[in-house]
Amino acid sequence: MSHNSTVARISLPDSDLVEGYAQAALKSVLSAVNDAVFPGYWSVCADGQGFGYGNTYPSLDGHQMTDALLWLGQERTVKLNWDYVRGFQRANGQLPLAILPGNAAQEIGPEPTRARVDDNGGLYTHWVAGDPLRALAGPTFIQNADSIFRHTQDLPWLRTQLPAVNLAADYLATLITPEGVVGGAGYYVERPVRVEFDGVAQCYVADALKRVSALNHVAGNTPSAQRYNLLATRVAEQFSQRFWTGSQFAEYIHPQHGRIDRHGLTDTDWAALAMNMATAAQRDILWPRMRAEAAFYYGGMPTGISTRPETYEAWEFTHPDRHDLAAMGRVWFLECWARANFEDGDGIAETLRRVCAVGRENGWFWRERYYPGEKLTPAGPEGYCEYASNLIRIVQRFLFGVEFTLQGGVILAPNVPEDYWRSGFGQSLHWRSQVLTYRMDASGITGTLQVPETTGTTSQRLTVRFPSELRQENLNATIDGKSAAVQIDASSVTLELAGPRAEFQIQFRPR
Questions:
Q1: What is the C-alpha separation between 87 and 84, in angstroms, rounded?
Q2: Fewest Cβ atoms closer than 10 Å to its Cβ: which of 46, 121, 267, 329?
Q3: For residue 450, with 0-12 CB atoms within 10 Å meaning exposed, 13-18 middle and 19 or more buried, which class applies?
Q4: Residue 448 bridge partners (DSSP)
């Protein structure tokens, strides 16, 4: 089927980023969708073959692809995939790391470490000694619920799915010590294993529990919302206290070796900054070190798991190879998330240019991993969708700064280089059958919101954040050519747009 209409029309001063976004969408993410396997199926590789035809990976890949597909308007596909994965949830809330129908009731993995695939095809225990990824499938499931609801505002769907979401959170709670530290070994790395308390896991689990709390609040389930929020707060507090070394966060805490912080700066530091798990004082110390650290870029590719990969020791690997000692799209996403929190548009754009350059050289495909070294050394299957899906997510979430709120509002808070403001940028954004077409530059924003009358939507709240360098004293806002009332808060402006079509404009004079 044709996917052209689902790819947002983005406009940026950098043509390579525009092309990279379109190619990542069309050649990788949308090409991986295959209803012939089952309605709502997608592969983790563009050719549908890498990592097994018909296999599904509810851990990590399940969210990277879900989120990217939602930005590309594929709500039906995403909901159907959700239903499929939910069917593998155990009574205790545990979800599988992978769903491998062809390996049902078989053992997989190299000797001497093997793992048995469940009779239903679900892999619930990892074959690497130490059972990494135990804490990964639950947050992925929760993140998906959060993204689906934000994009669709489908409250009946949320209320129907919330028992399964809460059950996933309850399983996560069993991995948390009474003090509030999350077990489960590596969160998204298997080799090194990061036994037993991975720093990235602390951040993602706390973030997931906050999302569960917020979803319960929206659905009117106040007791559950409070319970999950308290648990999230406990995990976050323990992380900021136990993992902080005075200048950075420990990568992980090992049962015998204690805090491991000798591999330089790591993805745990990016995670802490991305998910606001660091205190203000810790951020002030850490961000200046992270911001310009080129050692994270292996062969120039963002983003590696540590700045001193050569320092890992043999005891940190329970499996002979060091496969995850690499630059990966999942770490790149954390880097850009952190940069967005500090409004570092230059840094985000630079990483996007690096990833697009590698994609262009390889026919607009990416590999799974890029190993440490001055030379770019790719590994893993061709056409792996991780970098492609995260490219789409980073452009939308962090460069354009688009956020769909749980209350149905839209926030545009771009993090772009200064020259973007001079040249102008924008897009045509599709969600909930609505189309928001807008353009921003140093003089303000102009745009049109189109809402089909059949949706029953009467108004849409839009909040726009402008850089602090731009004044708002002489601001003028109009809707359909008439002066409009706006709410001004710090550097943002909020207005209400009424369907089925509204043309709006916010103008101001720069300094």
A1: 5
A2: 121
A3: middle
A4: 437, 503
Burial class (CB in 10 A: 0-12, 13-18, 19+), 364: buried
Residues 11 and 424: their CA atoms lie apart, in Å, by 8
Pairwise CA distance, residues 139 & 207, whole Å: 8
Number of separate helices (H) and strands (E) present in the chain: 13, 21
Q: What is the DSSP string of 10-54?
A: EE-S-HHHHHHHHHIIIIIITTTB-TTTSTT-B-SBTTS-TT-TT
Q: Are 383 and 434 a contacting pair, CB within 8 Å?
A: no
- Residues 280/281/283/289 CA torsion (nearest 10 deg): 160
Give the list of residues 6+ apart from residue 413 with CB closer than 8 angstroms, or none: 401, 403, 463, 464, 465, 492
DSSP annotation string for 349-408: HHHHHHHHHHHHHTTS---SEEESSSS-EEES-TTBSHHHHHHHHHIIIIIS-EEE-TTS
Tell me, yes or no, if the pTM score tops 0.85: yes
| Residue 51: how many other CB atoms lie within 10 Å | 18
pLDDT digits (tens, 9 = 90+) for 4-46: 445 668 999 999 999 999 999 999 999 999 999 999 999 999 9
| Torsion sign over Cα 232, 331, 199, 117 | positive
Residue 301 burial (CB < 10 Å; 0-12/13-18/19+)? buried
8 A C-beta contact, residue 465 and residue 401: yes
Dist. CA 244–CA 242, nearest whole Å: 6
Extract the tokens encoding 317: 């690997």
Collapsed DSSP state (helix, strand, coil) of residue 106: coil
Q: What is the model's pLDDT at position 3?
A: 47
pLDDT at position 453: 73
Angle between helices 267-274 and 199-218 (to 10 degrees): 20
Per-residue pLDDT tens digits for 280-327: 999 999 999 999 999 999 999 999 999 999 999 999 998 889 999 999
> Within 13 Å, how many C-alpha atoms sit on residue 41's CB side?
18
Print burial letters for 115-141: b (CB count within 10 Å at least 16), e (below 16).
Answer: bebbeebbbbebbbebbbbbbbbbbbb
